[in-house]
Amino acid sequence: MRRKIVPYLLILPGGLWLLIFLVVPLVYMASVSTMTGDVVNGFLQTFHFANYGQALAAYKTQFLRSVGYGLAGTILTIVLAYPMAYWIAFKGGARKSTYLLLVLLPFFVSFVLRTVSWKFLLADDGILLGPLKDLGVLPQDFHILATTVAVIGGLTYNYLPFMVLPIYVALERVDPRVVEASQDLYATRAQSFAKIVFPLSLPGVFAGVLMTFVPMTSDYVNASILGGPANTMIGNIIQTEYLVNNDYPAGAALSFTLMAVMLIGIFVYAKALGTENVLEAAAR
């Protein structure tokens, strides 16, 4: 009897944590999303599901922009992170821990401060663009801040370690003898990478995409600091609805719609990539 209870006791703290800080807030937010009213007279539960349609119709541009920024940032992080993780895993030698520490070093500074630092670096007359303009390399009206490039660049910078680490872990598990065996069978380095290394690293890519795309799409800090009015993301809209307009039902409806879009995107991505193949590769 005691053996049957022990597993449930072990998961009890985690289960309670999820119940109190995830399930209960989600249920409450779902309830708020169908309310009507205002902050002065109070909100009443009227099951007004039209809040979802109205919110999506009003802010579909920001939704699509957020998904586009998330996809662009995720692709950029893969392009940057994969060679970095590959080099650390196979060429890092005894200093792998040092290189990983360097990757994580920016995380010793808060997320907001890291983003604000880029605002100073990319300022029109900052230490990066100012000298180039003085030398005539760039025109005087050239600017990066308040553009799409600045927001996607900030997203890529801030979430890059979340892509490097899972890919590194996957590559670290690749047995070098398997790669050597493929080369003994006259496979070129490119063929060994395409047929062996990359497929075995897919679990890391899969995890990295989940860890970067979801927070990038819902991010609002980078758009607030590095972007302008034309780069507003859905996270900024939700923040405004909650904290400025006090329109809690609209904010809750937008949050749930964003969550639904994320879940659908993740399921489609997992189906396209083939989670069974990923799990099989991870188990090797």
Write the layout of secondary structure elements.
Elements: H1 2-33, E1 35-38, E2 42-45, H2 50-58, H3 60-91, H4 96-104, H5 111-121, H6 129-134, H7 148-172, H8 176-184, H9 189-218, H10 221-226, H11 234-243, H12 248-273, H13 275-283
Antiparallel strand pairs: 1-2
Helix content: over 70%
Order of helices and strands, N to C?
HEEHHHHHHHHHHHH
Query: Globular, elongated, flat, extended or rod-shaped: what is the shape?
Result: globular
Strand order of the largest sheet: 1-2
Q: Given this structure, which CATH class is correct? A: Mainly Alpha
Structural class: mainly alpha
Number of helices: 13
Keywords:
75% helix, 3% strand, MetI-like fold, membrane, single chain, 13 helices, 284 residues, cell membrane, mainly alpha, globular, MetI-like
Describe the structure.
The protein is mostly helical and 284 residues long. The protein has a single domain (52-283), classed as MetI-like fold, CATH 1.10.3720. It has 13 helices and 2 strands, in the order αββαααααααααααα. The chain has helices at residues 2-33, 50-58, 60-91, 96-104, 111-121, 129-134, 148-172, 176-184, 189-218, 221-226, 234-243, 248-273, 275-283, and strands at 35-38, 42-45. The protein has a two-stranded antiparallel ribbon with strand order 1-2. A hairpin with a 3-residue loop joins strand 1 (35-38) and strand 2. The mean pLDDT is 89.
Short recap of the structure:
The protein is mainly alpha-helical and 284 residues long. It contains 13 helices and two strands; from the N terminus they run αββαααααααααααα. Helices cover 75% and strands 3% of the residues.
